[in-house]
Prior knowledge:
Radius of gyration of chain B: 25 Å
Distance between the termini of chain A: 52 Å
Shape of chain A: globular
Largest sheet of chain A: 9 strands, mixed
Strand content of chain A: 25-35%
Mean pLDDT of chain B: 91
Strand content of chain B: 25-35%
CATH architecture of the largest domain in chain B: 3-Layer(aba) Sandwich
Number of helices of chain A: 6
Structural class of chain B: alpha/beta
Oligomer: heterodimer
Number of domains of chain A: 1
Shape of chain B: globular
Largest interface: A-B, 100 and 118 residues
Order of helices and strands of chain A: EEEEEHEHEHEHEEEEHEEH
Helix content of chain B: 10-25%
Low-confidence stretches of chain A: none
CATH architecture of chain A: 3-Layer(aba) Sandwich
CATH topology of chain A: Rossmann fold
Amino acid sequence: MNIIVCVKQVPDAKDVRLDPETNTLAREGVESIMNPYDQHALEEAVRLKETHGGEVVVITMGPPQAEEMLRLAISCGADRAVLISDRAFAGADTWATSYTLERAIKTIGDFDLILCGKQAIDGDTAQVGPGLAMRLDIPYTTCVQKIRESGSGALVVERMMDDGYDVLEISLPALLSVVKDINEPRVPSLKGKMRAKKAVITTLGAADINAESECIGLPGSPTQVVNVFPPPARGGRAILTGTLDEQIDQLVDKLIPFIQPGGNQ
Amino acid sequence: MLNVNEELCIGCGICEESCPFAAIEVENGCAVIGDSCTLCGACVETCEVEALSLDIEKFAKTDISGWSGVLVYCEYREGKLAPVSTELLGVGRSLADKRGVGLSAVLIGYKTGDTAEKLIGYGADVVYRAEHEDLEFFTDEKYCAVLTGLIKEHQPEIVLAGATAIGRSFIPGVATTLNAGLTADCTQLSIREEDGALLQTRPAFGGNIMATIVCESSRPQMSTVRPKVMKELEFDITRKGEIVDTAVDATLFKNRVKVLETVIGAAADVNIQEADILVSGGRGLESAKGFELIKKLADTVAAKVSASRAVVDAGWIPYPHQVGQTGKTVAPKLYIACGISGAIQHVAGMQTTETIVAINRDKNATIFDIADYGIVGDLFEVIPKLISKIEERR
């Protein structure tokens, strides 16, 4: 089973803050990591390969620095990695990103399955996976929490819903996005690290994938960010005082309106 | 392209400081743009000598003049209308009125009963109803095909859907097919005065920043909208509207995905995004058994139970209960955090809650920074007392 895993390098969100004075992202000390959901997609791909054979190819669209993350992916079991990188891709929204990934995948070759994380934690959009599947004209399912069966030609998967889960049969080739419940990603092995060090990472630019210039990067993006601002501040630090009983009485006063029928409902 | 006018640039380095992506470096007295530039434009605004400029030649994807009206996808599953649907009709109505256009609703499913009439009572002028037995169970493929067809036919300028499991899954497919811009998880929608464009505001970076997004040169402008953020209109049984039954040609469905089973078990009350009140447990509960106490408090205040990542990872409670960056984003009226320290990833998932109560024995826990009411104490002592006092007061 040949599997392509789409990964993204993201800033570790716990470090990202908007400087309230300048309204720009404070970048001091922000580390780059592999998007957490993508780590689960990669792990699932490697497990499928271990069962069925085949090849796991990891791809990412990003700046040259993303190569480091691709080496990490190889150390975790991917066979090879492709970096899709070009200044012309800068500023891409999800529409332009899915276009670019589609062009790249067409260049890379045949596959049975594409795995993505449910969403990237920097944008939280969850839009690139479905967009990519539509462009490739393959079926897709998001939020997969379990692959029950993986025979030839089709998969049986559990897809997480708001009220439970659906069991789906999906014919291959297909695209799945996964949630973190699906597995526990492994840590890189020593052998993997050695392999990653030596691995040759292919880089593809806009010309290599025959991307139309009006469909990539910021010019190819239908959406555009026009304003960035900090979220409204919360008050906070209102710790109740008095004896525990007094504190609880005060709290109950505040809670009653929420729980009385017809109160604050 | 981001251009640096070398004659104007004085090498002051302000742009270097302002770049969120560390993509600018001043070399030999002039700004040099590196590979990690995302064309965000932050530097252009800060440059005091106007040496930086961003020229974007937008490729017009559609002729936007023919697109008019607001269309809302109203989610219907397992015999129920998703509550976000009527919230969307509320905001959709106000956007449509502002633009002086109609509001239509799309209802996809099978045996939807009087749901279409209900949608009119909540503000829709027209309901396009696509009923077919093949549409009883949601699949991205079929719902995509039906909604895409309706949008192509009616050409609305704005399309709204709930940011639910279903909406977030198939709406991106629709947008891609239509070459439309789509903004996920909006928490605020309004109309820009000068050109009538839809201003879509959403949290990014786990809620640490807010971004406003427009789709200038393409139509429709599409958004998924977070549940519980928009206000529904009061139901008005006298409102008049039209129900249009849409022919569904099932032979066009590709059927590459089959629903074998729908499991709505205990998980049914796990839809924490639709809850008005959440009682949430963290590591302070000490063991899976601790959740019995959380459950008891939740029952007392008619709430649902949620949790922090730490306790989900520990296996004390299943993943659908998880609030936060890698779980769900919630915005209930009341959130009672018990034994939760308040890691930024958790806070990102609940900070838009109306009222936050925190109970934690560590007075330095960061959860208190955002709490409206905090009690520093042992939750095993506080919660039982809280339960009995609430019961006394009823």
